[in-house]
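Section 3.1 - Work completed
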Amino acid sequence: MRTKLHQSSVLLLHLLFSFSIIVLFLRRSHAQPNTTGYGCPANRTGYPCQAYAFYRGSLATNYTDLASIGDLFGVSRLMIADPSNISTSALSASLVADQPLLVPLTCSCNPTSNGTISYANITYTIRAGNTFYQVSTGPFENLTSYQSVELVNPALVATNLSIGVDAVFPIFCKCPNETQSRAGVNYLVSYVLQPGDNLSSVASRFGVQEQSIAGINGQDTKTTETLFVPVSKLPNLTQPIVTAPAAAPAPSAKKERTGVIVGLAIGVGVLGALLILGILLWVHRESTSKKRWAGGPEGDGEKRKAYGEKRSSEMEVNLMADVTDCLDKYRVFGIDELKEATEGFSSKCLIQGSVYKGCVDGEVFAIKKMKWNAYEELKILQKVNHGNLVRLEGFCIDPEDASCYLIYEFVPSGSLHSWLHEAGHRGG
């Protein structure tokens, strides 16, 4: 009896051990977790595909907005905002801590020295202080592992990374297989388990059944492990409300009209003041000009007259000095006498050229107007005292216009022009 009982106990223990092994194998066979990544199916059905990664915004330093996170994953802000239920008005807003985001990925099968791995190929440029571990756990929030980064970058030495070199960071992802696709699964979302998470809480977040997650990942899960959540459509993530600064109230129509009237009044007033100022300046300038040039008893006119009289006197003295030797031989006529005799050098009295006919004290003379020093002609006429030449009777000096007048006897017949203009040549 004891022998049969002993045999039964051994058999029961053996059955329990075998059952435990089978359960453990079934659990592990679903997710097949591996620190270097997740393998692809042999036939690669469904690859490549569109996948998504659940990312928590503003947790990693320097990744506090959509632009910086988009640069990290090589996508645009809008490509993250659209599936994440973020409005376009909040594209540039800063993210709050742990703000949920869905980042699009292109998932594919990639060969490595350790077999074919399913991941999204993301290129990252190494910066100062970066290590594979620091970047995997920091910016990429455990969506990959440093062991997998080392595997897909065999040419890089993890302990001696150069600043500026590009490294591939494999973001873990999967594509739905045929069975999952037939069941209505369109996407597998990569989700990193956080402290306090469990399959039930994750299923509630994505609006799916807990069993559907366990069917792909198994029940044995742990923190920082990547789960693949099957969804037919993306979850409607709840986002914080971004409040824009309140706009200033629009002015009422009455206030607008008042403002326009005040503005016009100020403008007209300024223009009127400028116009009056311009008129006053013009009047002042005209008044000053008249005083300056009219020659009144005071001011600039009086100074101008005194200056003219002084200059005329100086010119007269100079001209008289030139003909001093002739003063005792010829009569000196006054300019007023000549003007009266010729009616102000009228064209009626003009004989020819610059020679005028004029009557002084009842005697007719030929008056020759000259614009140059008459001294040389007077000298010649003194030496040539011939009966065949017209006789020089006198001269006159007009200091006002620096002119000299020679007064000859009037010859009623013959060419007076030849007598007056050829006398010097004949005497030569």
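Second construct:
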Amino acid sequence: MDRPKRKMLLETDVQQNADNSQDEELEINNESEITLEPKTKKVRVQKDKLEPSEDEDILMNEKSISNIDLSEIEATKNALLNQLKRIPPVDLQQQTDSLSQILKNSISLGHGNSVLLLGPNNSGKTLVVDHVLASFPPNSFSVIRLNGLMHTDDKLALTSITRQLNLQAEILVDLPGSFSDKLAYVLGSLDNGDSATIPIVFVLDGLDLFATHPKQLLLYNLLDMSQNAQTPVIVVGISSRLDTLASLEKRVRSRFSHRIIHFYLSKTIESFTEIAKHALAIQESNTTINSNYKFQFNSSLKEFFKSKSVCNTIDELFSLSKDVTTLLQLCINTIHNLNPENPFPNPNIFTFSATLYQQDQQIMTLNELSLLETCLVIAIKNVLRSQHESFNFEMVYEEYREFVRRVITLGRGVGQINFTKKVALNAFEQLQAIGILKPTTGVGSQCPKEYRMVKSLVTRSQIVNAFAHSSQHLPLNVVNWYIMFNL
């Protein structure tokens, strides 16, 4: 080959190699640019491409904080759970001011008084009492709490009063006299004989239950002391029954001041939602949590409560019951599911928790029945089809035996579903024990247990819904029996 041609070929190869190296260098530069691109920009590009849902968009804020320690998450959980004990009253300012004014005048002047907080359950009565009592200086009064569900008679109540006053309960055994004398002695032990005597605030939760005690001695003596005793006694009653005053005896009612503070459930969904916001927000005064994480956590709540799933869940709960306890329980479940991978409240957890609380307890109970108990429930459903409001074991067992005989006639195995009458009777009694059946009163209540009439506490629709979930675990014969009578 000629020298000039060879030189041209060499120059061509060099030029192609140079072009290839430039292309490779360009690709490397492009790759390095993509690799070195800031994380925030990558998230923005992915968001534009994938168009995540509203709930997923909330979780993207987690990438703005890295290296969240497990101890930091646990500290946040503890702080939020402790805050639940001190949630400020929401939309209860008028009730708070009224109770605060009554207690302020009584404590400062050393006068006895009484007041009744009346309203439905979960309307904030106890919350307002705790909030108002905590607003006073410490050691300015003594608080004695009694509950009608726990202190079912006056003796238990007096023993609890003695212990809460840091006195020895044994002194009650040797004290002579009536209940009134013993109560006066216990309260008189705090009397200094001058205006410096510390007032005593009695918080009676379930005042209507104390009204069922014989002669209402506890209420009579406490209200009488609130008017006449040297030791200032302030009685704060809490009740959810509107007829509480009517249940008091005339002598007890005459000693009550007739000061009543009414409570109501949340009137607007905004105030109902505000309760959840207070439960999930980290207080600014909390210094145990990293300030940057605290700021990001509280900022994420704005998007959390804008989530459609969260808004729909709160709106449904508000429309059905306005139950603050259930709302706070949903917040607790959301708090418990915080972890380093999901350091912010997750709307999906909040919504899933709501579905658990909305499940029918009777349906859940039906799903956990044994095979024989399920057969008896299907037999009960067939009896209910005959417009029988009440029935007995013999009627249900006859339906069950008819099913077993039909299976035997068809030549199919019945060993798994054939039980003796004694075993079936025990299963029938177990249905009564777990609340599926309820004995009726009146005629026949004293006859043998096989013939005692009962009523079903579950409806046919509940049985149908429960069977839809548990039918896949039942024998085919039982499923066919159910389907035959459900057509």
